[in-house]
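Support request from a user on the community tier.

User writes: "When I paste my structure tokens into the form, the page sometimes reloads and wipes my input. The last time it worked, I copied everything first. Here is what I submitted, just in case something in the input itself triggers the reload:"
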């Protein structure tokens, strides 16, 4: 039986045998480590209860606005997911005044850019995009506060990291990849999605996208092997998570919390 199962699992890394950047000798160990440590990057979906001056709706407005800024600056996808993760982890540990929430957002973007980007937006650009509500000194002070609160831990596995690997295991085409990322970006805005670990969120997005195109539910042995999730585990999550719902949010610049 083990031999039969093994035959059904495709070698998804053979095509990268000559690509040294793919590190195929270590890739399985790397993702096993990501899976083992992903909970360190998670926060409780109820963390807003400790905040006295901000709420979940304000987080929605902030993240949606930051997604627009992210695309305006033409930043990498990795930066977007790390930025939102930094915001949530910081807000789960530190109370923030309403007037400082946008400052947290642009500073989280600055930190994520420093970690992921080759060319980083300058502080003055972020000040301008926030309608000059903050000074350079305030941005740098918030940067210091965030990195100290998070103990300089920026190297955390986000759902984007898992998405790239799981899409490869699913042998995705461009259509499946685009729809899967559409779903996963919707989850960034939805505060309730914090209840799902990044790896589960990634596979739920891919599973939902597959069903959207084919109208059938099928989770291959190859995808199950590399994602660590069976189809039974995914059906309840993908069906009840709201990943397939198109959400529209209206925001203004500068941000209006009320």
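"...and here is what came back when it finally went through:"
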């Amino acid at each position: 039986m083990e031999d039969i199962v093994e035959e059904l699992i495709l070698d998804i890394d053979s095509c990268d045998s000559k690509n040294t950047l793919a590190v195929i000798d270590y890739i399985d160990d790397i993702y096993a480590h990501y899976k083992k440590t992903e909970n360190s990057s998670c926060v409780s979906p109820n963390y807003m209860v400790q905040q006295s001056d901000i709420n979940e709706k304000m987080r929605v407005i902030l993240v949606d606005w930051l997604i627009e800024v992210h695309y305006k600056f033409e930043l990498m996808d990795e930066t977007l997911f790390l930025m939102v993760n930094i915001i949530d982890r910081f807000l789960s540990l530190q109370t923030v005044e309403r007037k400082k929430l946008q400052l947290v957002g642009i500073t989280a973007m600055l930190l994520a850019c420093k970690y992921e980007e080759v060319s980083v937006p300058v502080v003055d650009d972020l000040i301008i995009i926030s309608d000059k509500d903050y000074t350079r000194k305030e941005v740098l002070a918030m940067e210091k506060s965030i990195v100290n609160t998070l103990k300089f831990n920026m190297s955390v596995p986000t759902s984007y990291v898992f998405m790239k690997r799981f899409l490869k295991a699913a042998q995705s085409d461009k259509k499946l990849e685009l729809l899967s990322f559409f779903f996963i970006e919707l989850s960034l805005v939805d505060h309730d999605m914090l209840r799902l670990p990044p790896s589960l969120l990634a596979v739920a997005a891919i599973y939902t996208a597959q069903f959207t195109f084919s109208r059938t539910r099928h989770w291959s042995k190859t995808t199950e092997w590399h994602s660590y999730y069976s189809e039974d585990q995914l059906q309840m999550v993908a069906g009840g998570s709201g990943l397939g719902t198109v959400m529209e949010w209206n925001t203004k610049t500068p941000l209006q919390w009320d």
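Agent notes: The reload is a front-end session timeout and is unrelated to the input. Residues 56-72 form the longest helix (17 residues). The chain is about 55% helix and 0% strand. Escalated to web team.
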